[in-house]
Design brief:
Layout: E1 13-17, H1 22-33, E2 37-42, H2 45-58, E3 63-68, H3 69-75, E4 78-81, H4 88-99, E5 103-106, H5 127-135, E6 140-143, H6 150-154, E7 162-167, H7 170-182, E8 186-189, H8 196-212, H9 227-235, E9 241-244, H10 257-267, E10 277-281, H11 282-288, E11 292-294, H12 302-311, H13 315-323, E12 325-332, E13 335-340, E14 345-347, E15 364-366, H14 372-387, E16 392-401, E17 404-415, E18 417-418, E19 421-422, E20 438-439, H15 441-449, E21 462-466, E22 471-472
Parallel strand pairs: 1-2, 1-4, 2-3, 4-5, 5-6, 7-8, 10-16
Antiparallel strand pairs: 6-7, 9-21, 10-21, 11-15, 12-13, 13-14, 16-17, 18-22, 19-20
Helix pairs in contact: 3-4, 4-5, 10-14, 12-13
Bound molecules: NADP nicotinamide-adenine-dinucleotide phosphate (NAP).
Length: about 500
């Protein structure tokens, strides 16, 4: 059930029986993009070959072939059945022998046109149970995907809907969950194959909703704790991986950060997976967003002169610090701590002169982006669209801490995650309920990533973090990490 590399990666050849249809072709494209070798199965082998060739054209580097149903089932290590219910029994009978010893993922919904909006389950209870009875115990049938619209899947982006996975064989269910999570779906093992009835019945309910409410593209969502948290509770922590994204260019104003990161991820052999966090140094954002300032062009004021006199810092830098701050909190020789206009407390209002480069002359400094949360959200959107998986993005900077020596990687921009992990209500080792346990998980991830993101000459401005447990949230923002002034005990 983990989103990390697992048994699902061992599955390379996948046959999709009915792969030229709406659901099958959308699955084929996603699975091929995730690196699997795909066999499109059709009643007409030539049609399958033509279809596979067309699909390959749209997916550079993909391995997609086409053939008859039996030939594909024989080739594959795992098969997915995506044919109409009317063809379910007949197709399974045809490929039964080739499926022996394999897993069959059955996506069939027992719809009986024209009344597709009415639940009409077969006498056996569900199509999946019928299929298992037909195939016998030598095939491990796993029911899945009945509630995911082919259109959404084909769009290639993160899918707003969950997948219920029912199977009698827990190992097969875990393998299928992992496979689906790798193509950007959130999958839950919901118990025995008999429970497939619920997913199969739900499709007619979703069809009704889509008809009545003008095609809202209804899907199913399991609410409660975040899936990543549930997975780690279910499987135990599988550890956290931190991968530096090496070889990125030196950034300049106007560069496409998302494009460079996408290429960098691929060049480093990193295929983003659902739940991964991309951590990027603030400097990279600031450079591409044109936040560099040349000190000689800054207009001067009496307030800036006063701050420069107290700190010994250049007056132009003092001016910029003031322009980025709402409050000067502490000043002494060569040090100024301010409350940044976004609320974060930082030395020099976060303005930095290291690693800026001298394109604009030696007197160049970098301000934080105008809206770091918005910058993180834009990058997340672009990377998700590119890779078709659900990600979080953190913009990090090294900040000092009151009361402790040394800087720490800190989240100043966040997208796709709640930066706080609320553990209240959970129990400790001794069964006592945790009362006040809000974990600044975005800061923890930023700090962990800063172990590989270079501060000095390393030139690694970004990292991919895998396996961190956090709560996905569309409205997550680093601003939520700033303690409200009225709760500040030290002023
Ligand atoms: N579409 C969705 O959004 C969706 C979502 C979840 C689940 N499902 C389920 O997934 C299955 C496939 O749905 P789909 O919408 O992809 O179906 P589809 O496009 O209508 O058909 C899929 C393929 O099934 C093959 N087929 C085999 N025997 C057939 C027969 N007797 N009549 C018609 N086609 C036959 C056809 O391929 P060849 O002609 O190449 O043999 C066809 O391309 C269904 O059981 C459906 O309930 C669909």
């Amino acid at each position: 059930m983990s989103t990390g590399p697992g048994a699902e990666q061992l599955v390379s050849r996948i046959a999709i029986l009915g792969g030229a249809g709406a659901l099958g072709s959308a699955l084929a494209a996603r699975l091929a993009r995730a690196g699997h070798e795909i066999w499109i199965g059709s009643r007409d082998p030539q049609r399958a070959r033509d279809f596979a060739a067309a699909l390959s054209n749209d997916q550079p580097g993909a391995r997609i072939h086409g053939d008859g149903l039996l030939a594909c089932a024989s080739q594959a290590e795992i098969c997915i059945l995506t044919v109409p219910y009317a063809a379910h029994a007949e197709t399974l009978a045809l490929v039964k022998d080739a499926l022996a010893g394999k897993i069959l993922i059955d996506a069939t919904v027992p719809l009986k046109p024209p009344k597709v909006g009415t639940v009409q389950l077969p006498a056996a209870g569900s199509a999946a149970v019928e299929g298992q009875a037909l195939l016998g115990p030598q095939v491990r049938v796993v029911s899945a995907l009945q509630n995911i619209g082919a259109e959404k899947l084909a769009a290639g982006q993160a899918v707003d809907g969950d997948v219920l996975v029912a199977a009698d064989d827990a190992e097969a269910a875990a393998l299928v969950c992992g496979l689906l999570e790798r193509i950007g779906l959130r999958a839950w093992h919901v118990g025995p194959l008999a429970n497939s009835a619920a997913a199969e019945a739900m499709t007619s309910v979703l069809i009704q909703i889509n008809r009545r409410y003008k095609r809202v593209q209804a899907g199913l969502r399991i609410t409660g704790k975040a899936k990543a948290e549930a997975d780690s509770a279910h499987a135990g922590s599988s550890g956290v991986e931190i991968h530096p994204i090496r070889g990125l260019p030196l950034f300049a104003a106007g560069d496409n950060l998302a494009d460079a990161l996408a290429r960098g991820l691929i060049a480093n052999g990193l295929a983003p997976e659902d739940g991964d966090v991309v951590v990027v140094a603030q400097k990279a954002f600031s450079k591409v967003e044109g936040r560099a300032r040349t000190l000689s062009t800054v207009s001067l004021s009496p307030e800036g002169r006063d701050l420069a006199r107290k700190t010994g810092k250049p007056q132009a830098l003092s001016e910029l610090i003031l322009s980025e701050s709402v409050e000067v909190m502490r000043v002494r020789e060569n040090l100024v701590i301010t409350r940044h206009r976004l609320g974060h407390v930082a030395a020099n209002a976060g303005i930095d002169a290291s690693n800026v480069g001298d394109q604009n002359g030696p007197e160049t400094v970098l301000l934080w982006p105008a809206d770091p949360d918005a910058s993180a959200a834009a990058l997340r959107g672009a990377l998700q669209a590119r890779f078709g998986v659900r990600l979080a993005v953190i913009m990090s900077d090294s900040l000092g801490r009151a009361w402790r020596t040394g800087t720490l990687g800190t989240a100043i921009g966040v997208a796709g995650m709640n930066p706080i992990r609320d553990r209240r209500g959970e129990v400790d080792l001794f069964g006592r309920e945790l009362k006040v346990t809000l974990v600044a998980v975005a800061d923890e991830i930023a700090a962990a990533a800063s172990l590989v993101i270079g501060e000095a000459a390393e030139g690694v401005p970004a990292a991919l973090v895998r396996g961190a447990v956090y709560q996905p949230a569309e409205d997550g923002a680093a601003l939520h990490l700033v303690r409200p002034l009225e709760q500040d005990l030290f002023r």
